[in-house]
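G., the chain you wanted modeled:
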Amino acid sequence: MSSTDMNTAHTSKRTDISPVWIVPLIALLVGGWMLYQYLSSRGPEITLILPDASGLHEGKTQIKAKNVQVGTITEIQLSEDYHHIIAKAQIDKEAKRMLKEDTQFWIVKPHVGADGISGLDTLLSGSYIEIKPGLADDHKYEFNVRDQRPITGPDSKGRRIVLAHKEANILDVGQPVLHHGLTVGRVEKTRFDSDNAMAYFTLFVFAPYDKLLYERSEFWVSSGVELEMSADGFDLRIGSLETMLTGGVSFDVPEGVDAGTRLDEEGREFRLYESYEAVLEHQFDDFLEYVLLFEDSVRGLKAGAPVEYRGIRIGTVERVPLHFQLDPQGKIDNQIPVLIRLEVERISQAFRETDKEEFAKRFQYQLSQGLRGTLKTGSLITGALYVDLNFYEDEPEYVASTFEGFEVIPVVGGSLSQIQKQLSDFLSKLNGLELEKTVASLNSTLANTSKLMSSAKNVTDDLDEILSQPSAKEIPGELNASLEQLKKTLQGLDENSELYHQLTRTLTKLERVLNEVSPAVRTFNEQPNSIIFGKDGQADPVPAKGN
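Predicted structure as tokens:
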């Protein structure tokens, strides 16, 4: 071998892979598999909009469905206008089917409200977000989160209605909706419209109780304990335990009102009343307004007080007073105007068949017949007054008049004024009596009576003195002796005794003498002159009748 060959290197290619690369390759494959598994098992990311981030933490706050974790909050940030919170949440792949257009989210935290107490377990575990799956067909990945659990879910069956009222705090979310004391729904939402200054409350009535809703159903606030002081006295009503704690709203068709057809309209608006009594008052929309000018005190007379006729309510007091009236000198008039309304439908069937104009004519005729108004006390405890209409005799003739465009009903003094008048009349009659002569005659009679009593006392004293003498005391003994002697004398008149026979012979002779004397006495009675001229048996001659 030459030196040239020895100095030349020979190279060749190797086609096998070095074992050093096996480990990184395996790691890459495992990582890729894990990435694939992670990406394939990862659910969608959703956006949650909240009013604030109270109780939320990135990477910790969980999203649960029926207490099963289905996601986690991954990011929390402010919106661009700082108006709300935008939170990002990672949802599990299996929970993706829950994300529908009607899916609901709300924060679960300790809560005490009209709908009860909830979320006490979060005092230790912290707040979390609850999800209620929707039933819509389309998916959605951005949601508004509520502050508390919604009253109804997408699968809740029933009907929603809206109530309108001027007060925004009269109802609250979660309060019960009652029908004859049974909870049939809940207050779902409240809002206030500043344009017309009205509050609107959305109620949800659960099926099958939504069948109890009719076109003429009425709604009123139901308080747990209602104490009302009126002209009728005290009225205490106690509801269920829930309404005592939270209150609520009741509905029904008032008695005597046609219910109409069953409600099939969603979101129908109704008026909300303060009480059932206000509902009943609302039935009488056909009325006439009158003014009464009282000179008595109207303390205790309130708007809403009844107007009655002999105990039957026929109207309502509207304003007390209507306003004060000034005379030309600027002095307040002593008459206080009270505005009332007479509700035609409350009065007899004869009036119900007429219109308001005909009713006004008939009522004016009653005024001409002596119908007058007066104030009466409805309750001695509360001092509440009411207006009473009745017929009064000896009242001045009715003269039609108006006050501020309202026809005036004449009035008479109230019960207190009548008592004062009667007392005044009694005192006037008492002053008209001739009391001085009456008192003088009475004094004379008393003096004579005193003298008579003095004389009677003297007679009694004299009688006592006579009876006290010894001879007077012997009178009973002598009287008893006389009675004994009389007894012995009567015993001597026995039919076998000599005295009895002598008395019998004497009576026989006396009878004979009387028989003999009897004709002479009869003749003397008939002819008194027979003692002188003797008895003449012939009749007196009668003169003959001339020819």
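The CA atoms of residues 450 and 456 lie 10 Å apart.

Shout if anything looks off.
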